[in-house]
Design brief:
Layout: H1 2-11, E1 14-19, H2 25-46, H3 56-68, E2 72-79, E3 82-92, E4 95-103, H4 112-126, E5 131-133, H5 140-145, H6 163-184, H7 190-206, E6 210-217, E7 227-230, H8 232-237, H9 241-251, E8 259-263, E9 269-273, E10 276-285
Length: 286
């Protein structure tokens, strides 16, 4: 996992920042809006729905004061000042609880989820935290990072002295058992799946053409008179950020060393990466 960090820091202008006890309200609003956008984009592409979106406004409203009181924090990975990965955590004594995190899909090659966990574990060791809690869920990456996995338990406490208390306790016990049984059969996901299906279907109908990218390794250097030197902004304007980042990862070279050109007679862009001439262009696909 260290190799992800090495390559990320070699290719991009990376900065890590944890907001814990001190954060400007404008910075907080921008980061939470970015995190929400990252989550929505990632789950829309999968045709799924993130559970926290239902209570996002409530969560955002209370978390600012929690960060100021050091009860919560935002860990952010920046690329040249742009947030590309954000994690919302809660602080419970000497436990750092990782609650919600997401990243910019244009940087998916760089394994930002692993970088985030590594850096937050590093922070825990430096600040006297003995536990990094990754939350409920049996995802593979959690198993890879965890050295202790335990079963989540519901405990129902009630007084045994009154009939009302016993009835309520038994009701709560059976309600939780039924809920967990339905979850084991994935019944709880049915509503979200149907909602996401129709939402995604409508989105696809409105945007039937999606961009796919092709890389073409040129056998020789193109005639410079057929190229127009361009900036990184041109690459962003054409929507080539993800393929560009994929190439940075593949060739493990700093972004600042890549030369960007626009060919006069061809679509797309031509990049000079480590002496290699590569043409990148988009293919509209159904």
């Amino acid at each position: 996992n260290r190799r992800y960090i090495t390559r990320l820091e070699k290719c991009l202008k990376i900065r890590y920042k944890i907001y814990w006890g001190d954060i400007e309200e404008l910075t907080y609003e921008l980061l939470m809006a970015t995190l929400q956008k990252m989550i929505s984009k990632r789950f829309d592409e999968k045709g799924e729905h993130h559970q926290e979106m239902k209570r996002w406004d409530e969560l955002k409203q209370r978390t600012f004061s929690q960060i100021k009181k050091k009860q919560a924090s935002l860990f952010v990975i920046y690329d040249d000042g742009l947030p590309i990965e954000i994690s919302l955590n809660y602080h419970l004594g000497e436990v750092l609880f990782s609650s919600i995190s997401s990243y910019d899909m244009d940087y998916s090659k760089f394994g930002l989820g692993h970088v985030e966990i590594y850096k937050q574990l590093e922070w825990c060791l430096q600040n006297g935290y003995h536990t990094f809690e990754m939350g409920v869920g049996g995802m593979d990456y959690k198993a890879r990072w965890s050295n202790y996995i335990y079963q989540f338990e519901h405990v129902v406490l009630h007084q045994d002295t009154t009939l009302t208390s016993r009835l309520f306790g038994n009701y709560e016990y059976h309600r939780i058992r039924l809920k967990e049984y339905l979850k084991s059969k994935k019944i709880n996901e049915l509503k979200d799946r149907l909602t996401s299906f129709y939402k995604f279907k409508g989105f696809a109908n409105e945007n039937s053409k999606q961009l796919d990218f092709t890389f073409e390794l040129l056998s020789h250097a193109p005639n410079e008179s057929s190229l127009v030197k361009q900036t990184y902004q041109c690459l962003l304007d054409k929507g080539f950020k993800k393929p560009f980042n994929d190439l940075l990862y593949k060739y493990s070279c700093p972004k600042s060393t890549v030369h960007i050109y626009e060919p006069l007679s061809l679509e797309g862009l031509v990049l000079n990466i480590e002496g290699q001439w590569i043409r990148v262009f988009s293919n509209p696909t159904k």
